[in-house]
C-alpha cells in the first residue's frame, strides 16, 4: 500500500508565499516522476510543475518564475515553493507520483489534496 500525504496549504494574501510538501510512504521500490497539479472550482485539473528522478523540472507557463519544485529522494518527498502568489492560484493542489512498488508494478498515485486560497 502506498500513500501520498500533502501538507502546507492555507490562506495567504496576494504576494505572499506558501510551501507545500508531499511525502510518499509504503512498499516503495522507486519513485520516478513526481508532480503537483491543481484544480480550481469549475475548472479542469492542470499540471503545475513536475520533476523527474534525476531532477529535471517543467512548469506551467502561469507559474514560471514564481513556483519552484524540488524533491528529497531520501525522504520520498516532493516540495512546491510558491512565491508571489496571486488570487488566480487559488485551488486544491494535488501531489502525484509515478511509483514502482515492491512487486515491480508501477502506476500513478495521488494525494488527497490541500487547499490553497490567495486573497486579494
List the helices and strands and how they pair.
Blueprint: E1 2-7, E2 10-13, E3 18-26, E4 28-39, E5 46-51, E6 57-59, E7 67-72, E8 77-82, E9 91-101, E10 106-110, E11 114-119
A few lines on this structure:
The chain has 120 residues and is mainly beta. The protein has no helices and 11 strands. The protein has strands at residues 2-7, 10-13, 18-26, 28-39, 46-51, 57-59, 67-72, 77-82, 91-101, 106-110, 114-119.
Overall, the morphology is elongated
The description of the largest β-sheet is: 7 strands, mixed
Mean pLDDT: 97
Q: What is the H/E string? A: EEEEEEEEEEE
The secondary structure category is: mainly beta
**Number of helices in the DSSP assignment:** 0
Uncertain runs: none
Q: Can you offer a commentary on this structure?
A:
The chain is mostly beta strands. The protein has strands at residues 2-7, 10-13, 18-26, 28-39, 46-51, 57-59, 67-72, 77-82, 91-101, 106-110, 114-119. Strands 2, 4, 5, 6, 9, 10 and 11 form a seven-stranded mixed β-sheet that branches. A four-stranded antiparallel β-sheet has the order 1-3-8-7, with no helix packed on it. A hairpin with a 4-residue loop joins β7 and β8 (77-82). The chain starts with a strand and ends with a strand. The model has no long low-confidence stretch (mean pLDDT 97).
Amino acid at each position: 500500500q502506498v500513500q501520498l500525504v500533502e501538507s502546507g496549504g492555507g490562506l495567504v494574501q496576494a504576494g505572499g508565499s506558501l510551501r507545500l510538501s508531499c511525502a510518499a510512504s509504503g512498499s516503495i521500490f522507486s519513485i520516478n516522476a513526481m508532480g503537483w497539479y491543481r484544480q480550481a472550482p469549475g475548472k479542469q485539473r492542470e499540471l503545475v510543475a513536475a520533476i523527474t528522478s534525476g531532477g529535471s523540472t517543467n512548469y506551467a507557463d502561469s507559474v514560471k518564475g514564481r513556483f519552484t519544485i524540488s524533491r528529497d529522494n531520501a525522504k520520498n518527498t516532493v516540495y512546491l515553493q510558491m512565491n508571489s502568489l496571486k488570487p488566480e492560484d487559488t485551488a486544491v493542489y494535488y501531489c502525484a507520483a509515478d511509483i514502482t512498488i515492491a512487486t515491480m508494478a508501477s502506476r500513478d498515485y495521488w494525494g488527497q489534496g490541500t487547499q490553497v486560497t490567495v486573497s486579494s
